[in-house]
Amino acid sequence: MLTTTRARTLGFVGTLAGQRVVVVGGSAGIGLETARQARAAGATVVITGRDARRLDAAATEVGADAAAPFDAGDSAALSSFFRSVATPIDHVMVTAGAPHYLPPLEVDPEEARHAFADKLALTLQVAQESVGKVSAGGSLVFVGGTGGRRPRPGYALFGTVTTALPALIANLALDLAPVRVNLIAPGFVDTPLSARLLGEDLERRRAELRATLPIGRVVTAEDVASLAVHLMANTALTGATYDIDGGQQLLPT
Fold first, then answer.
1. Distance (Å, rounded) from C-alpha 51 to C-alpha 168?
2. Tell me, what's the pLDDT at 44?
3. Does 62 map to a domain?
4. Which of the residues 58, 124, 158, 227 could staple to 27 if both were Cys, CB 3.0 to 4.6 A apart?
5. Which helix (DSSP H) or strand (DSSP E) does residue 120 occupy?
């Protein structure tokens, strides 16, 4: 049960003052920027990540209240983290889990099972672990994508997960109410992960998007983090998927 003071705080749109935000996958990119913006909005933050050294640097950079190094794909480690983290938690942001770009007609069946299950299973487990720990009126914010919505060769696994996530999120919003559950679906975002995936093609892709996107620029981690913080602060939003791709889906194939 929320106290009157805490309920008023959670109901105040536009600030996270006095609230506690956990960012799973918060050592770089969208997660790190979300932690930074949540701190600027008045929250205390806890961040997690696989790389302990990078995580420590990120925690110092944003002034995190705590940092926990572990692999979010390890279900036992994730459960242990939620058992140990200080409560109450007001918001959980999950950016962990890289997309699987695997050739559908060549991939090993066991690897395909993991590709299908990893992101969906992580989302479900975070929802399970949040029960009794996330405040009423608080939120879970997950990150998916838009890249697999248009059928194209080689995207069967990635596209399936991309299109399944909104259904899972909408249903979890009902199961977890009054905790709110939302999904952010970015297109291309200029992050270290994008740089690793594209390698030498990164600058070509940036130039292409600057020339073709309706917004005339590339979407950044700051853009996505700003949306994430808004979803935390605006208590009227739940069960929905929010695209943020600079108009990329409007372009002809």
1. 29
2. 97
3. yes
4. 58
5. helix 109-130
Amino acid at 250: L
Strand partners, 141: 93, 182
| Residue 81, token pair as written in the block | 């983290």
Summarised one tens digit per residue, pLDDT across range 211-222 is 999 999 999 999
Q: Cβ(17)–Cβ(9) under 8 Å?
A: yes
Contacting residues for 154 by C-beta, under 8 A, at least 6 apart: 101, 103, 104
Judge whether 56 and 247 are in contact, CB under 8 Å.
no
Q: What is the pLDDT of residues 168-180, one digit of tens each?
A: 999 999 999 999 9
The answer to whether 158 touches 101, Cβ cutoff 8 Å, is: yes
Q: What is the CATH number of the domain that holds 157?
A: 3.40.50.720
Q: How many domains does the chain have?
A: 1
Within a domain: 5: no
Domain containing 127 equals 13-190+221-244
Reported in sequence order, the residue ranges of 83-227 that DSSP labels E, i.e. its strands, are 89-94, 134-143, 180-186
* Percent of the chain's residues with pLDDT above 70: 94
